[in-house]
Write a structure and sequence with these properties.
RNaseH_sf, RNA-directed DNA polymerase, nucleic acid binding, DNA/RNA_pol_sf, Nucleotidyltransferase, domain 5, EC 2.7.7.49, Endonuclease III, domain 1, four-stranded mixed beta sheet, five-stranded mixed beta sheet
């Protein structure tokens, strides 16, 4: 038997299939059951590493998570039974080593059918009370059934469709299915804002926002990484919005990253108008790899007018210049050592890095997790445009596993007109720029003929003692030196 090459060595691979490392599992199975809150959190953290091998893991641990969310923690026989069910669910082997079967089984969350939603809604006592009020007449606030109190404020927006309850064109999810809906919406481990945006487009129930925050706080994967890094920076220099989608693209490279040698780097591409992202994991970040990636994307989406990048060696190479020239794409560059000019792709870089780190923590294949992340990012409303990248690129809404609205319930929709997109983008850009510039430092202003000393990027150290003369000013915070 040969051990699987991975950072954590939690699995074994043989002809029989994929196995959990017995050396990791035995202590977990033999450990005494937790008796307090600290012990229960440790148990959930340990079993969470093996969640991919345990069908319906979220359902199994829900009683334990509910106990942690309670105002007062008390151990009970019911919790003991729940702990034992989790232990019993850990298998010795999993599916045969078939990539398609394994990926499909391990990474696709279960969608909710209309029949399942209807049955759960009919069985929900709270929704039954609310449906009665909506079909008849709402009493005064003080006389409302306590179970329906959370619906009183929005009573004029509620309607009944068979067994389903709607708020406007959004489904009110019965309590029995909320955990699964939350899990599906957070499958790509996006942050609080994006997870809430995905849910608000299709669903509603009382205290939805609070449950999303609680979900992310209790998410073992999200709690183990922090993607917020501060650094000194000059004021932001926004770039005008293009006339339409897929005209001006921004590209960048992330890495090297820990992991398989074939996935040490990531090439990140984003359309400036629609915010449509593309990501490719690769072995290196050479000009050949970038050209191959762009050629694949251009064959599917078409050739843009302009490609903006930083001044990295691969982007400055003759190989890429020749490729873009042959394709008729104008190549432009952001200021050296000032990637904030290319801020849109930089923000996407940060989000992609968090997704990749989440893949490692979730014990999922990195490439599979990135595909899942891209799928969710593309169909989530972007704060800069007010619509999803998918709508602006494809001209229609995407159907996802969160779409369980019956075919005869027509959502109101949202027009993705150019004027609305531009107004939303301008407002978002002004807000983001104001927030960004609060921590920016005033950019010094030099003129041609001034003498300066160059600071080594990333270290803050002055590179040598020799001064260099400014040749000319090339932008708001950019200069060409006599040595260039």
């Amino acid at each position: 038997m040969e051990k699987l090459e991975s950072e954590d060595d939690f699995q074994w691979i043989s002809a029989a299939g994929v196995q959990i490392d017995p050396g990791r599992i035995s202590p977990l199975l033999e450990a005494p059951e937790p008796q307090d809150e600290k012990g229960l959190r440790a148990f959930l953290g340990a079993t969470g590493y093996h969640a991919r091998f345990m069908p319906r893991y979220s359902d199994l641990v829900e009683p334990l998570r509910a106990a942690l969310r309670a105002d007062k923690f008390e151990w009970s026989p019911a919790l003991s039974s729940a702990v034992q069910r989790v232990k019993d669910a850990i298998p010795e082997t999993w599916w045969p080593d078939d990539d398609d079967l394994q990926i499909a089984a391990l990474t696709v969350a279960a969608a909710i059918s209309e029949e399942e939603l209807s049955d759960a809604s009919a069985a929900d006592e709270c929704l039954s009370v609310v449906r009665g009020y909506v079909s008849g007449q709402w009493p005064r606030r003080r006389d409302v059934d306590p179970r329906a109190a959370g619906f009183f404020q929005v009573r004029d927006e509620l309607s009944v469709h068979g067994q389903l309850l709607l708020r406007g064109d959004r489904l009110v999810v019965p309590a029995a299915l909320r955990e699964r809906v939350l899990t599906n919406a957070h499958a790509g481990h996006q942050g609080v804002v994006r997870t809430k945006q995905r849910l608000r487009e299709r669903f509603w129930w009382p205290r939805l926002d609070r449950q999303v925050r609680d979900l992310l706080k209790s998410c073992e994967v999200c709690s183990q990484h922090d993607g917020h890094v501060r650094r000194e920076r000059p004021p932001l220099q926004p770039i005008p919005l293009p006339d339409g989608p897929w005209q001006r693209l921004m590209v960048d490279v992330i890495g090297p990253m820990r992991g398989p040698s074939s996935e040490r780097y990531g090439i990140v591409l984003v359309d400036m108008y629609s915010r449509w992202p593309e990501v490719a994991l690769c072995q290196d970040a050479t000009a050949d790899s970038i050209c191959q990636f762009l050629e694949t994307v251009f064959a599917r989406e078409g050739v843009p007018l302009e490609l903006l990048s930083d001044n990295g060696p691969a982007f400055r190479s003759g190989r890429l210049a020749e490729f873009l020239g042959r394709m008729g794409v104008k190549q432009t560059f952001s200021s050296p050592y000032s990637p904030q000019t290319n801020g849109m792709v930089e923000r996407l870089n940060r989000t992609v890095k968090e997704a990749i780190q989440s893949a490692r923590l979730a014990r999922e294949p990195r490439s599979t997790f990135v595909r899942k992340f891209l799928g969710e990012y593309r169909v989530t409303v972007h704060p800069a445009t007010g619509v999803s990248p998918f709508v602006l690129m494809r001209g229609r809404e995407a159907r996802t596993i969160l779409d369980v609205t019956p075919s005869d319930v027509t959502p109101s929709g949202r027009a993705a007109e150019d004027r609305a997109v531009r107004q939303h983008h301008q407002s978002y850009q002004e807000t983001y720029r104001a927030r960004y510039d609060r921590t920016a430092t005033a950019a010094p202003r030099w003129e041609a003929g001034d003498w300066v000393r160059v600071r080594k990027p990333g270290t803050g150290r002055v590179e040598g003692q020799r001064s260099v003369q400014v040749s000319r000013r090339t932008g708001p915070v950019s200069y060409r030196l006599a040595t260039d």
